[in-house]
Every structure is written in structure tokens, then in C-alpha cells.
Sequence to fold (211 residues):
Amino acid sequence: MIIKTFTVGAFASNNYLVVCNKTKDAVLIDAGGDYNATIKELKSLQANLKYIFYTHAHLDHISGDFELKSKINVKTFLHKDDQFLVDKFKEQLFMFGMPQTETPLIDEYVEDGQILEVGALKFKVIHTPGHSPGSVSYLVNDVVFSGDTLFADSVGRTDLPGGSYEQLRDSIINKLFVLDDKIKVYPGHGESTTIGHEKQNNPFFGKKARI
Fold:
């Protein structure tokens, strides 16, 4: 498995290109922009981008969708509870003073526990609401892509529409902190971390949150 990180846009969002070594099929975890960098990396790896898996539908994670879909035949996946944010995409752009662009199109909804295959890789969908109602994390092999749910030494904000700190805390403790301590966490912003480090050191939980 190959993982390439792109940090893009005004909000410095992390997009992750994940490539199956065996088949060269690839998925992009979130699409915040920078189409050219994505295409350059795909060509370098001789990989075939088949899917975009969204962790949630805030504008900084989905605003690169339209260009990718218009130029490459990719399918997009999102949890249905975040469709309302897609529907309000142009309002999101206006709210943050961003230039208007086309609204992303979602092809399929994901569900908690669902397995999504990319070549020989199997991604497990973990519904982790709190940052947004439809936030999900994707677990594959020994890594988890946590979106804006869990960060290195921090957690996602819950003051945006549909956010809930109680749900976020429950998602982290009961959905993410039950994973193996060695699981590497790739968040939607900032540096990577591990489940074990966050259980011990995250200031929102720390040792009190041990499972």
C-alpha cells in the first residue's frame, strides 16, 4: 500500500492518495483541490484513480470534486447524513468568502461497517459523527483516515452546523480508541499520529480515556 499526502487549499486540508501495490488501483481520501498535483502523482505511480472517499462534506474536503469527476471517471462516496452539507455547498463557500464553484456530485452513500475494496485493499467504514453528522473514518490495514474527528493532540471542532461534542467524544472513545494502539492515524489536518499516542496524550482525553 502506498500513501501520498497532499496538503491543499486555504484551510491546509490533507488529501490522501492511497494506491494498491498489486493492482495500481487508487482512491483519494477527500478532495480539497490541486487537481494537477493529484494527476502528476498518479502518473508517477502509474496508478488508476477509481474512487474518492469523503470523510465528511465540509467545503475544504470536497471542493476539488467537480474537476476530478469532470476529467477522470471516478465514483464518489459519502455518508448520507452529510448530504445536507453538499446541498449547502455554495452557502459554505459564501460563508467563508471562497470563490464559487460547481457543487460536488455524490455517487454512493456509505454505511457504518461497510467494506469498500480498492484493488486488493479493503477499507472499513467507521461512522464517527460529531464534527459533522456524517463524518466517517476509513480503516485499512494498519492505518485509519480520521478526517476532522481526531487530530494529533487535538480533536475536530463541533461548532459548525450539525456538530456535537458529545457525539464526537463518543465516536473517539468507542469507535477509534478501541482500535489497536499501533494503528497510525492520518487526520484531515496536521501531522499523523497513532491511536496509542492519542489515548495517552490527547489533552481532550489523555489517560482518563483508556479503554
In short: The first strand starts at residue 2 and ends at 8. Residues 2-209 form a domain with the Metallo-beta-lactamase; Chain A fold (CATH 3.60.15.10). The mean pLDDT is 92.
